[in-house]
Design goal:
Length: about 280
């Protein structure tokens, strides 16, 4: 029986009931976080809490419990007996239940808070051999910096990639590559590491931030600058980053084989350093 967190209580997941008036249900009016448990610790939980607070602030959702996220996440790991394995914790806050209006309900409306945890098995095949990704027009809104639960453009785009045997859909807006449907993307061109700068066009990924730090520590030349779609032929290496994929090589971008079609050396180097940091924290 899976135990989930719902509005202050840990209860069996299938006992949760949510009002049809919940603004998460009616308007996708809510935000979320996904944090990863590595057998004994959460990776960079501090950044997840910071981003959670920012998302709440940007959407003006009045919930002052964001600092509870680490303890709720730890309790979910313990209650679901996931302690000795890898796991994910999903955390969501919506503006709560209120009569459906396009203006916000009274600030006293109680937000709906939900979290659950599940055992996670990394996709080692993709990590080792790399993935093929689709390229598609970015049909999302212009506040992609908010980790909103309104993900329909992401899911319909990813579904197309999935149906075509690809592991991610990478978006292009006005000729510039932004990010994936659920990941950030990095490129190696002429020995320099490129990724889209933080802006309203992309989510500021926590893995992205840590990969940039690692690359800097490795002395890699970095440019936080969007890559034009028409420069794909100059891309020697690429990789996506997110909490579950960590650093996953991309070997084919929209039908274009990158480099020699294998995970590239800079990607491998960054991935090794990322793995080494996880091992070091595990102790
Ligand atoms: N997605 N960009 C988008 C659009 C994302 O949805 C995500 C994460 C990222 C990477 O963020 P991070 O490195 O903090 O995981 C970038 C999560 C994993 C999800 O929706 O399940």
């Amino acid at each position: 029986m899976e135990t989930a967190y719902f509005n202050g209580k840990f209860i069996p997941k299938d006992e949760i009931s949510i009002s049809p008036d919940d603004r998460g249900f009616l308007f996708a009016d809510g935000i979320y976080e996904v944090a990863r448990w590595y057998e004994s610790f959460f990776y960079d939980m501090t950044s997840h809490v910071t981003r959670l607070k920012r998302s709440l602030r940007e959407l003006r959702i009045n919930w002052d419990g964001a600092d509870l996220f680490p303890s709720i996440a730890n309790d979910l790991i313990r209650l679901n007996k996931l302690g000795s394995q890898q796991a994910m914790v999903y955390f969501q806050v919506t503006r709560g239940a209120a009569v459906r209006t396009h203006y916000f309900p009274s600030p006293e409306t109680t937000p709906t808070v939900y979290a659950n945890a599940w055992g996670f098995v990394p996709d080692n095949q993709s990590l080792e051999s790399g993935i093929k990704v689709m390229l598609k027009e970015d049909i999302r809104w212009s506040r992609c910096d908010i980790k909103s639960i309104a993900l329909l453009p992401n899911t319909i785009s990813f579904q197309e990639a999935f149906e075509n045997g690809m592991k991610e859909c990478i978006f292009v807006r006005n000729g510039l590559i932004t990010e994936g449907s659920h990941s950030n993307i990095f490129f190696v061109i002429d020995g320099t590491l490129f990724t889209h700068p933080e802006s309203n066009q992309v989510l500021s990924g926590i893995t992205r931030k840590n990969v940039l730090r690692i690359a800097q520590e490795l002395g890699i030349k970095i440019r936080e600058e969007a890559v034009q779609e028409n420069r794909i032929r100059f891309i020697r290496e690429a990789f996506i980053t997110n909490t579950s994929a960590e650093v996953t090589p991309v070997i084919d971008l929209g039908g274009n084989t990158l480099g020699d079609g294998l995970p590239g050396p800079m990607t491998r180097l960054i991935r090794e350093k990322f793995d080494a940091e996880i091992k070091a924290i595990k102790g």
